Amino acid sequence: MFQEDENDEDFIVSDEDDTLGAPVDMPLAFTNVATMKAKGLFKYAVQWFVQRKINPAFDHDAEIYDLAFKKLDDQVKGLVGSKFTSSVWRQDFTYALQARPEIIVNELSGGFKGLGCEACGRQSHPATFTIQFQGTPYHIETLDEVSEEDSDDEPARRGEQYDSKGRVIPSEDRIYNLGVFCKNNATTAHTLAHWRYHLNDWIVDYLENQGYCSAEKLVERERWSTKKRGKYANEVVEEMMKAGEIERLYRDFQAETDTAREAKQLWRGRK
């Protein structure tokens, strides 16, 4: 059974403090939530994903969610932009990395080693790995897939796909040969860039494995009002908190950013 300790204080919600939903009696800027650090706000990010699955009609843009994602994104964006995404990378490579949520990395066999790196274009960086970006492009704010209607340009030619900014991105079949330096940076940048997508995947799997998305539960909730579904989703989050799941998820998130930060500092030390 999960036991609270001093490190878990930010994850425990008191009835006398803030609630799982956004405070309703006063503007958020005047509540203790406004000064919370990323760790304390992480539970609201989890709540957003749970609500999205169980109660799709919830207020996606509630102020509490905007604050939570802003604080968490701040931990990630500086790392992605300042170190792990290179300005010398080919445009199509960068677009694919940013748009597609899945990545496949393989080591090149001996017969193909020695080719130049196709990310940075430097022949002096011999390719020793391949990277392939897969998955449908999506909108990071909503996690909804990008459709052809989202582009302001002319209709896509056969086989073309756009990212959330309307840019044409390479096919999922495109395989890049990379040197070890660009491979390491690209895999880290990809993990950080798509943290919301993969956290959502984990939470959806968790909800399904715990039976919250069984056919019986779906039929039962079909008759519920949005308010009742929202309350139920909050109860699910509370159960996740009591079981220590949210704390474990935050530790995983923190471990990813800590690893990236340490790699960044190590790289600086070698300059």
List keywords for this structure.
271 residues, two-stranded antiparallel ribbon, disordered C terminus, DUF4211 domain-containing protein, DUF4211
Q: What is the number of beta strands? A: 5
- Whole-number total of structural domains: 1
Tell me the structural class: mainly alpha
> How many DSSP helices?
8
Radius of gyration (CA) equals 21 Å
Protein architecture, described:
The chain is mainly α and 271 residues long. The protein has one domain (6-269). Helix content is 47%, strand content 7%. It has helices spanning 38-54, 63-84, 91-99, 180-193, 195-209, 215-222, 226-242, 245-269, and strands at 102-107, 129-134, 161-162, 168-169, 176-178. The strands form two sheets. It has a three-stranded antiparallel β-sheet. The protein has a two-stranded antiparallel sheet with strand order 3-4. A hairpin with a 5-residue loop joins strand 3 and strand 4 (168-169). Helix 1 (38-54) packs across helix 7.
